[in-house]
């Protein structure tokens, strides 16, 4: 039963019926964000009572917050930082964690046991293929060794023209393991969209697949790859069989191409992996702007900045552990793919699904949630709206007993979509509308397991993100429309 006490601390203008969910006592007891708050109180002899107090401290004491966050998350490093943040003028990018040396892939592969790491599902399947952390480490070891053999070294660029599957994750980690930089386009971008993005990066190696399946149709990708190869130069093009066996795939018309099996060759016997150590600010990813105002622009993201932001959000804002299973419906080119994959660093397994969200059954996403016991599900706000329009009511057809959180992004989640989720999907679930972007590869507005959910509202501003709303004159305002502005630096 919701009552007036539940509205204490709610935003102005909120009514009792706008409160849709609140955390239960068990959730509050095991919230990492509260554990972190208590840690700060103990060390600094402060009296931070709740999330809002912790948030304010995180932006007021910026350097202390990021230092404590780094220590709390405990990333694997070969050399610790000398200084958290170097002073810099507003127009320059400050240097974070100066002196730190680490490797992105080493952190995502810190768990190497036989527990599931990735469940890779292609449209038309439900069971998919499971890959353990040990198997993932072995795959990455082989790929990294093969990349070195073709001359890939620290700072080189490697690209994917790939679907969302476990092979894409392993290839990305192999690239990061040798200190190279990863970028990826999705097969649905086509030839022009792919070349417009990759031409600015000039990758030495391209990984791709022969075909993808979407909306019950197989789309051949090799003709596109052939056209791309005539418009750009690559040292090697590696074809990864995805829907068909190698014997049924013809790559003779693609210059400098070979199959993944041949690319790996003798490196399949490799069992040890030496992670190339790089500075905190060394690039790990290149993402791209949408291209709506011209050729897509490169968005470069650092090893350390990406890692600390993602782990902060995944652990403190969404409470992910090894007991969870995270699934985000995304392509391998969207920022949320990179965000989801970082959950591996927490030992949290992920689902990689490639295909239509409504085919071959309109309930395929919810079928996967029930079958594999997904605990945290990520969707676009548009997808939720489409489910509403299609009359898809999972609450009537599925158990969803494992599902504890639904995250939406891509656009604001409308108030009536909040109502739809709680009425037709699940009544007790943390529904977090989150906002960030490819330009920061992280979140400005996030979720929080210790805060309630109100209709039409984002739960909170992300820790360490000094987010304000400015009017046209550049003044901070509240409870009225304005421009989102982040007034202080952050690592990513």
TrEMBL record:
One of its GO terms (cellular component) is cytosol. Pfam families: ACAS_N, AMP-binding. It comes from the Eukaryota. Residues 110-489 form the AMP-dependent synthetase/ligase domain. Its EC number is 6.2.1.16. The keyword ATP-binding applies. The keyword Lipid metabolism applies. It is an enzyme of class 6 (ligase). GO terms for molecular function: acetoacetate-CoA ligase activity; ATP binding. Keywords: ATP-binding, Cytoplasm, Fatty acid metabolism, Ligase, Lipid metabolism, Nucleotide-binding. Residues 51-107 form the Acetyl-coenzyme A synthetase N-terminal domain. It is found in: Cytoplasm, Cytosol. It catalyses: acetoacetate + ATP + CoA = acetoacetyl-CoA + AMP + diphosphate. Coiled coil: none annotated. SUPFAM superfamilies: Acetyl-CoA synthetase-like. GO terms for biological process: fatty acid metabolic process. Converts acetoacetate to acetoacetyl-CoA in the cytosol. Belongs to the ATP-dependent AMP-binding enzyme family. NCBIfam families: ac_ac_CoA_syn. This is Acetoacetyl-CoA synthetase.
